[in-house]
Design goal:
The chain has about 140 residues and is mostly beta strands. The chain is about 10% helix and about 35% strand. The protein has two helices and nine strands, in the order βββββαββββα. A hairpin with a 5-residue loop joins strand 3 and strand 4.
Length: about 140
């Protein structure tokens, strides 16, 4: 695993859903895959597996309220990067991705937020295998 190009602490003022007490994270890249790890600075055992949605869902376009972008400083689309949290499972067919609540990071400000997409188009446990095959 290696540090992301711009290895710096990312501040999540409200934390991650269910882990609100942890505010500072770093992003680590898995050199052997397309995965990233969002790891708490305060407790390295608090770590989320991340993936870019555009690796398997080019048309992924959740409707995200502007309030989430304003929480991390606002700006143009190009100033943000989006990741999805991956839920691992020993059975590869049961690995899932949370499409409903993406992680959004403002690249320059180094602030992040977990947003909740409007509507019900995307689920919180979408099968990664099916997404890769294009059947979701």
């Amino acid at each position: 695993m290696s540090e992301n190009n711009e290895q710096k602490t990312i501040l999540f003022k409200k934390g991650i859903l269910g882990f609100e007490e942890y505010k500072e994270y770093i992003v680590l890249k898995d050199n052997d895959s397309s995965l990233y790890y969002l790891q708490s600075v305060d407790d390295a055992s608090v770590e989320f597996v991340l993936i870019s949605p555009y690796l398997f869902a080019q048309d992924y376009a959740p409707v995200i309220s502007e309030k989430y972008f304003q929480e991390i400083g606002g700006g143009e689309d190009i100033e943000f990067i989006m990741y999805l949290i991956v839920r691992l499972d020993p059975d590869p067919d049961k690995i899932s991705v949370n499409l409903q609540a993406p992680i959004i990071i403002h690249l320059e400000r180094r602030e992040g937020v977990q947003a909740i997409a409007d509507g019900d188009k995307y689920g919180i446990r979408e099968s990664l295998a099916k997404l890769i095959k294009g059947s979701v």
